[in-house]
UniProtKB/TrEMBL annotation:
This is DUF1295 domain-containing protein. Residues 260-279 are annotated as: Disordered. InterPro entries: UstE-like. PROSITE patterns: S5A_REDUCTASE. It comes from the Bacteria. The chain crosses the membrane at residues 25-48, 55-74, 80-98, 132-151, 157-177, 206-224, 230-249. GO terms for cellular component: membrane. The keyword Transmembrane helix applies. Keywords: Membrane, Transmembrane, Transmembrane helix. It comes from Rhodococcus spongiicola. Signal peptide: none annotated.
Length: 279
């Protein structure tokens, strides 16, 4: 028993030295799960009532803002880091939610969700709950783990924080400018039936998804400034996987593949990472 007590004391001392509060983290993460569950339930009710599940795209950005605010308010970690992350995520998440709401106004279901439910077969209601709403709720919680961990971690802001902010700025620029360029392109009747290959869209076929990835790697770096934030590296990895392979770029590419001019666009423009267009 003396050996066990000694080991336990050393572990507790290490946790205390790292400035990480396991009890505080448990409270923050459970509260975040409850808040996200409520948001997803409300979103699902609206989705089924409207007959289209792309409303979940609006709640995606809002969900991260909710978790960031819960973490900032209920966390007991470094005050500056908590509210820095809350501010960065609020700016990104609210802009994204507004953009998705404006883009989806007056339109029907997203073809990607239609195909997802068609491929699932069986009961579409159950498939929507499982594959769209439940999956998004879990993804929101997991991707935001760096924010939750930072909320209960003590330690100074440092070089990684600065690099993280710069990466966030890069990502936000790519996403917001890319979305604005695409909106302006679609608003011009002269562009109907053509492929957007100008501006940032000439450097990467998915500047908005690339920007999202940069934002969450930046958030991770800010969290990784202090232990054990570095252990949340799987969160930005998961977000990047969603954006590149699971529900983002690859699914959109399949939808766009048969449009006239898109194969040529694929040949001349980078898939994800920006680079000068090929001739």
């Amino acid at each position: 028993m003396n050996v066990v007590d000694s080991v336990a004391s050393q572990v507790l001392a290490q946790d205390a030295g790292s400035g990480f509060d396991w009890g505080g983290f448990t409270f923050v993460t459970v509260t975040s799960l409850i808040a996200i569950a409520l948001l997803i339930v409300v979103t699902a009710v609206f989705g089924f009532r409207l007959g289209r599940h792309n409303v979940v795209d609006v709640s995606w950005g809002i969900g991260f803002v909710v978790i960031a605010l819960v973490s900032a308010v209920f966390g007991d970690g470094d005050l500056w880091r908590r509210w820095l992350l809350a501010a960065l995520i609020a700016v990104w998440g609210l802009r994204l939610a507004w953009h998705m709401a404006r883009r989806g106004r007056g339109r029907g279901e997203d073809p990607r969700y239609e195909k997802m439910l068609d491929d699932a077969g069986g009961n579409r209601t159950r498939a929507a709950i499982r594959k769209i709403y439940f999956t998004q709720g879990i993804a929101l919680w997991f991707v935001s783990l760096p924010v939750q961990v930072s909320a209960v971690t003590q330690g100074p802001l440092g070089v990684l924080t600065v690099v993280g902010i710069l990466l966030w700025v890069t990502g936000f620029t790519f996403e917001s400018v890319g979305d604005a360029q695409m909106s302006a392109f679609k608003a011009d009747p002269a562009n109907r039936g053509t492929i957007m290959n100008r501006g940032l869209w000439g450097w990467t076929r998915h500047p908005n998804y690339f920007g999202d990835a940069c934002i969450w790697w930046g958030i991770f770096l800010i969290s990784a400034q202090t232990w054990p934030g570095v252990l949340t590296v799987l969160s930005p990895v998961a977000m990047t996987y969603f954006l590149v392979y699971a529900t983002g770029a690859r699914r959109l590419e399949r939808h766009m593949a048969e449009r006239p001019g898109y194969p040529d666009y694929q040949e001349s423009t980078s898939y994800f990472l920006p680079r000068p267009p090929r001739r």
